[in-house]
Write a structure and sequence with these properties.
alpha+beta; two-stranded antiparallel sheet
Length: about 90
């Protein structure tokens, strides 16, 4: 399912028009993104938890030249599925 299909499904399920459903989906994505940028967690009980994981700087190798290179520290978004979502899938 891509984003447009998700918007269509939300519109159909909620009875909203596609324009309103699109705004709702975008608002949810923006709210999650904003919270993660601030370093907060987003917990949706029964669905899952979005969080940020900090990765330390490390040393890797360039696959072409085999020379060592430094990989910068970064923040990575993570998602951990909740019990309700796990049960629904299994």
């Amino acid at each position: 399912m891509n984003k447009q299909e998700l918007i269509g499904q939300v519109a159909e399920t909620s009875g909203l028009g596609k324009g309103d459903a699109s705004k709702a989906v975008e608002a949810v994505f923006d709210a999650i993104q904003t919270a993660l940028k601030k370093g907060d967690e987003v917990r949706l009980v029964g669905f899952g938890t979005f969080s940020v994981s900090k990765r330390k700087a490390s040393t890797g190798r360039n696959p072409r030249t085999r020379e060592p290179m430094t990989i910068k520290a970064s923040n990575q978004p993570k998602f951990k599925a909740g019990k309700g979502l796990k049960d629904a899938v299994n």
